[in-house]
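Hey, quick one: can you model this chain's 3D structure?
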Amino acid sequence: MTVRAEEAPPPSGVEKERSTAPRPPARLFHPDHPPVVVLAVLGSVLLAVIAFDVAVQWQFHHDQHSLAIAEHQLGQTRSSERATAAELASTTRARDARRQAVARTAAAVTATNASLSSASQTISLQTLDISSLQSCLSGVLDASDSIATANLPAAVLSLTSVSSACLSLEDPGSGLAYPFDFPDPFVLPVGSLYYAFATNSAAGNIQIVQSVDLTHWTTVGDALPHLAPWAKPGATWAPSVLQRGTTFVLYYSAIYGSSNEQCISAAVATDPQGPYFDDSQAPIACQLALGGSMDPVPFVDSDGTPYLVWKSQGAGGQPATLWSQQLAPDGTALVGSSPTPLLVPTRAWQHGTIEGPAMINSGGQYLLFYSGSDWKTVSYAIGYATCAGPLGPCTDQSAQPLLASQSGFSGPGGPSLFTDSQGNLWMAFAAWLPGEVGFPHSRPLFLRRITVTGGVPRVDP
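Sure thing. Here's the predicted structure for all 461 residues.
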């Protein structure tokens, strides 16, 4: 083995120098090991990060919890708002219902007062007119029995005998003149008498009544016992009469043979109440291509020239139209090759239909009255137009009807204009009674005064 020799001790001088020289600082770590301070710092950082993360997580969960609570509270608030809105709507409905109830109560009170007033009037009328009611009902029943046994003269006599009694039961303010069925009326003044003609009814082909005062009417009977050979019975409509000297010409419409369309004929008599005779072999006006001709009414101009105005039903794209054509001097035939159109329906209230014309000359102003709309409804009404002459042209002046349904009657139509013995202008028309509109109800005869001011007609109350 090797034996190391002992080193000799350094000289004493040298040892003294070594002890007095400065020493380098002591090394805290070995180069191959991490420093303790770094580890401590890293640990502190890590702990801080962990603590921060824990704090963030806690805050996140706390915020989530708070959000859930807020959403819950929001839901409760919305639910409360919906409940409040529903309660408000319910309260509003209840308020409106109370208001409506108050309005209905007020209306009921008003209606009750009106009913009481009407009842008082009715009781008064019943007290005053019970005998008239009994007389009217008895006469109508007798007339009905006579018609059932084809005893027309007896039926006419029964109706005549109770006409005044039946009329006294009606509202005098409505203008009711004859309380039985009297559609498409025409009134002819002759001397001190007035004759009224109407579409066929219980009294025969052309019924006729007469009066001396326009208030009390007597049933005469059938003005046209026999129709023309070409005419079918059962649909003899809208008669009118023209006086030419001592001769009277009755115009009427009837079904022409197998055509099933209305055409116009003329019958002649020497007395205004007839009987009228018609032996014609063909109508004097028959527009078959236009749906037929009907509602004839004569008009005499200021120079004495007679004209006939009437209606075509409308067909082949042509609407219902009012026409005019000159008559021969004796009134039994038309003059010229074709009629002149006067008016077609243009107003909304007419519902595409005009008919029943009647022309007058009032102070140099030609006025053409007519009916418009459906005759069997409450919308049926009367209008008028102004014309340059008997052959037109005419301009409709009735944006609204001149005479329409009111308290005393419904669906007035078929106007006939005439002048009484005192020079007053009247309009005769037929209308349904309120609540009794349409077939098989009756259309009685009504009369109303007409006033023309500045060329504008007005129906007096």
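One thing worth noting: The CA atoms of residues 96 and 387 lie 54 Å apart.
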